[in-house]
Specification:
The structure holds 2 protein chains of 2 kinds.
Chain A: H1 2-22, E1 38-44, E2 55-60, E3 66-71, E4 77-81, E5 90-95, E6 102-105, H2 108-115, E7 120-121, E8 125-126, H3 133-151, H4 156-177, H5 186-192, H6 195-212, H7 216-228, H8 232-249, H9 252-270, H10 275-288, H11 297-306, H12 310-316, H13 318-335, H14 337-343, H15 350-359, H16 365-384, H17 392-407, H18 411-417, H19 420-439, H20 441-453, H21 457-472, H22 477-494, H23 502-513, H24 523-534, H25 541-569
Helix pairs in contact in A: 1-6, 1-17, 3-4, 3-19, 4-19, 5-19, 6-11, 6-17, 6-19, 7-8, 7-9, 8-9, 8-10, 9-10, 9-15, 9-24, 10-13, 10-24, 11-22, 11-23, 13-25, 16-17, 19-22, 20-21, 20-22, 21-22, 21-23, 21-25, 22-23, 23-25
Chain B: E1 3-7, H1 15-28, E2 32-38, H2 51-75, E3 80-86, H3 89-99, E4 102-106, H4 124-135, E5 138-140
Parallel strand pairs in B: 1-2, 1-4, 2-3, 4-5
Helix pairs in contact in B: 3-4
The chains are: A alpha/beta, B alpha/beta.
């Protein structure tokens, strides 16, 4: 009975998510009743982004009476109804936390028009940023969060929750004492949570949970070994391809969690160091993982923010990823040539080989078949869904629900499989990043990068790709990407030719492939090192840096070449 | 009557430990147990939901590491048993030593690098003393490891 209730609850939450994401939202545009004189306008920030939630008041300047008031909508627009008696001196006051107050005086011609019942559309209103105490506090909280995550002193989710708590503490308690301390309130914070991302990740977690128990990874790895005939030079690219393709469809961490132990066993059987197989594998996971929308959390963030479809990633990024993959294979063969030649003299242990073969069996063939059918159906929907405005999160939720109903798993176990801590991490992260957006830090960064780029698309491509790649080696790439999205959005809106969303692809390449630059560059690296160390083959920070940094330079270099070819040399081919 | 327990991690760092344990088993004719302890501390940063899945995989990997050591022992004419446990390394070593009435405990030298599952140089003498007092077994650390 309890299980049934839990199943119903889980399915209901998935259904609610589908409805939440699937039902088109009512247009957010401010509208006024017909037949009434109205004043309309749009409020923007300095960099052209719309400003939501700004208080707009129509005031009679002489008396100071407020005649009408409203708030800007999600598209930055407002509409104010004008009273029947229109005074001569009308002024519109626009106020918003973290911006300087603005007053717009209506000219006599506009006032006369209003008296005759004609609507008045104001020119766009641009607010100036206000840098006050809240700016520095929010910046400090965000930097502290990045530092704690990078140093691993506190669990990522706890760190992000701590950031949220501090933001609310300062906003509610400090803000009550001094308005300059106000950062963000709860309802404002919720606006920054991207539910597309949350539900897409949750749906994919359920799919992954169903697949990881089937023995598929072990089967794939063993058959990679068989296909290579035990020749290490051939085994390296096959395992890289298997890991890469799996990472593009599932998440990198799960892929490496399940591939690493079996890879260690293959290496021990062959009598070679597992690092010769593991390093190319994890680097391939980081590189090829970004070829699809669902391959990495960073791509999910980018896709949702920039409205880039599954096909968008496939057509604009996948060829570049394949180019980088070829470069990575050649690099791996060269770096581990010593192991490759050494393996020729090693005798394969038949006892270990037998054991390996015993394990390489699909343990849940029925579940795997069902997951395969659902996965193929989801892939079809991911590819074709954009034609009916089906967002990827809905596809993931639908796929997860169908799979749950079809396979009827133990619902307690299935609930445990959903990584709620990660989902909470994302929600908290969105709020902290929202806070630095709110106080204007993101605008400042966007302004600096905008000046550096100076409207040149090639420079923008190079700056965003390489800065995100190099920063991803030391900063956790998920919060980094989340914070960079509005910056890249600004560049996309202001740099001529960037409307193709090329700079978002640069962010994807940089933050994804940049993970190869150091051990802490990607969670998949940490997981691989953790398992490898427990098999007696530690991967030190220095070792990873030595092997990974050249890989970063090669793959990001090839990725950059692809982006330049696709969007600068042959821009007509970009979709 | 007693036995030999040899706690290993696999890899080049365990070669001398395995060799010493095998030689000791030949010399004393005591039953030899290779122990591998699964430790999932590194999962703290990844997420608790994946722990049970990786736990199974780590057990399999541990058995594989032990199988390689057992094969080595078999080549030397020694029959060894592999034991995989999950938990804190010292606790599991002590528990197994009690279970099999260990007379000798063969463990590796500390690593230069620190880690969740290794004894550092600083900790090593203390750990050895603790193990000897807790298990009653003589702790042997091979010279070259």
């Amino acid at each position: 009975m309890r299980r049934r209730i839990r199943l119903v609850v889980l399915l209901a939450s998935l259904l609610a998510g589908a409805l939440l994401l699937g039902v088109p939202r009512a247009a957010s545009r401010a509208q006024a009743p017909e037949g009434t004189a109205v004043i309309t306008g749009t409020v923007h920030g300095k960099q052209g982004q719309v400003v939501e939630g700004a208080a707009v008041r129509l005031v009679a300047q002489g008396t100071g009476d407020e005649l009408e008031g409203g708030v800007t909508q999600a598209d930055g627009r407002f509409a104010l109804m004008v009273p029947e008696t229109v005074p001569d001196d009308l002024v519109i006051h626009v106020e918003r936390a973290h911006y300087e107050d603005m007053a717009v005086v209506l000219d006599p011609e506009a006032v006369e028009g209003l008296r005759q019942g004609q609507p008045v559309a104001l020119p766009d209103i641009h607010l100036l940023r206000q840098v006050n105490a809240s700016f520095w506090i929010a910046t400090l909280i965000f930097a502290g969060m990045l530092a704690l995550i990078g140093l691993g002193k506190l669990h990522n989710t706890l760190t992000a929750l701590l950031g949220v708590t501090l933001i609310f503490f300062v906003s509610y308690l400090g803000g009550a004492l001094n308005h300059d301390l106000f950062i963000l309130d709860f309802s404002g914070a919720l606006r920054y949570v991207d539910w597309n991302v949350i539900f897409l990740i949750m749906g994919m977690m359920i799919i992954i949970a169903a697949v990881e128990r089937t023995g598929l990874f072990q089967w794939l790895a063993y058959n990679a070994y068989r296909l290579s005939g035990g020749r290490v030079w051939l085994l390296i690219p096959i395992l890289m391809l298997v890991t890469g393709v799996t990472s593009a469809m599932l998440d990198n961490v799960t892929t490496m969690l399940l591939m690493t132990p079996i890879t260690v066993q293959i290496a021990l059987t062959l009598g070679i160091s597992p690092l010769a197989l593991l390093m190319p594998e994890v680097m391939a996971s980081n590189v090829v993982g970004i070829s699809t929308l669902i391959g990495t959390p960073t791509n999910i963030l980018i896709g949702s923010f920039a409205k880039i479809s599954f096909n968008g990633f496939l057509s604009n990024l996948t060829p570049g990823v394949l180019l980088a993959f070829v470069g990575l294979v050649i690099y791996s063969e060269l770096v581990y040539r010593g192991e490759i030649h050494g393996s020729e003299s090693e005798e394969v242990s038949h006892l270990l080989l037998e054991r390996l073969a015993e394990r390489a069996k699909i343990t849940e063939p029925e579940d795997l078949k069902k997951a395969g059918v659902v996965g193929a159906f989801m892939l079809l929907l991911f590819i074709t869904g954009e034609h009916v405005h089906l967002v990827p999160a809905v596809t993931a939720i639908m796929g997860a629900t169908v799979l749950l109903i079809w396979t009827r798993p133990d619902i307690d176990e299935m609930i445990e499989e959903v990584d709620w801590t990660t989902l909470v991490f994302f929600m908290a992260l969105f709020i902290v990043v929202g806070a630095v957006q709110e106080v204007g830090l993101v605008s400042v960064v966007a302004d600096v990068i905008g000046r550096l780029v100076a409207g040149n698309l090639v420079v923008a491509i190079l700056v965003v790709t390489w800065s995100s790649a190099l920063l991803s080696t030391v900063i956790a790439n998920i919060p980094f990407t989340a914070a960079m999205l509005p910056v890249v959005g600004y560049l996309t809106a202001t740099v001529p030719g960037a409307h193709s969303k090329v700079i978002f692809y640069c962010l994807s390449v940089g933050s994804g492939m940049g993970g190869n630059g150091s051990l802490i560059g990607a969670s998949a690296n940490m997981v691989t090192a953790g398992i490898s160390e427990r098999a007696g083959y530690p991967i030190s920070f220095a070792y990873f840096l030595k092997k990974g940094l050249p890989a970063l330079l090669i793959t990001v270099g090839l990725g950059t070449i692809w982006l330049l070819l696709r969007f600068i040399v042959f821009p007509g081919t970009a979709t | 009557m007693g036995s030999i327990v040899s706690a290993i991690r696999g890899g080049p760092g365990s070669k001398a430990t395995v060799a010493r344990a095998i030689a000791l088993a030949k010399e004393t004719e005591l039953p030899l147990y290779f122990l591998y302890v699964v430790n999932l501390d590194f999962m703290d940063r990844v997420g608790s939901s994946r722990v049970h899945v990786i736990s199974e995989e780590m057990h399999e990997m541990g058995e594989f590491v032990l199988l390689a050591a057992q094969e080595e022992a078999a080549k030397a004419g020694v029959e060894a048993t592999g034991v995989v446990r999950e938990g804190k390394v010292t606790d599991e070593i002590v528990a197994l030593c009690h279970e099999v009435s260990a007379a000798f405990l063969v463990i590796g030298r500390p690593r230069a690098m620190s880690g969740d599952n290794v004894f550092t140089d600083h900790q090593h003498p203390e750990v050895c003393r603790l193990l000897e007092s807790e298990t009653g077994a003589r702790v042997i650390i091979p010279e070259a490891d």
